[in-house]
Amino acid sequence: MRLNFVAAALSAFVLLASPAFAQSEEDVMERIEKLHGQSKAFGEAFSQLQDAFLLGDPTSIADLGSYPFEVAANGELYDIFAPEDLVDNFDTLLTQETIDGLSSQDYGDLIVTSEGVGFANGALWMSLVCADDTCADASWGIIRINN
């Protein structure tokens, strides 16, 4: 009897420790809408970002930045103040592993939290950034890159 309890507890622990299964695109959109709003605008930013990574276009990636933001790379933290900072140092700031992960990001595998939306297991984060205190004018922007 005690052995069955231990086996059941161990099975429950393994299930809880396992990574979550991919969600549907609709589930992700619903969660983004619930936590942030403007899920359709996020979908457009997602497509722009993924296209830019697939095409190797640092300028289009930089256009999605919410400046200033930080990039963790090479064991250091870099402050990115303007699009040119990202474009001019792109090869140093983003590893090939990060680029590959972002290029092949599945919508259902996005991380959605109250802080933003994470790509490639948290290698890049986007959030809805308000232009003023009323947040009437807002857009999705890159707020952090982690290698």
UniProtKB/TrEMBL annotation:
UniProt keyword Plastid present: no
InterPro entries: Glutathione-S-Trfase_C_sf (IPR036282), GST_C (IPR004046)
Any Pfam family hit: GST_C
Annotated transmembrane regions: none
Protein keywords: Signal
Signal peptide: 1-22
Domain Glutathione S-transferase C-terminal: 7-68
Protein name: Glutathione S-transferase C-terminal domain-containing protein
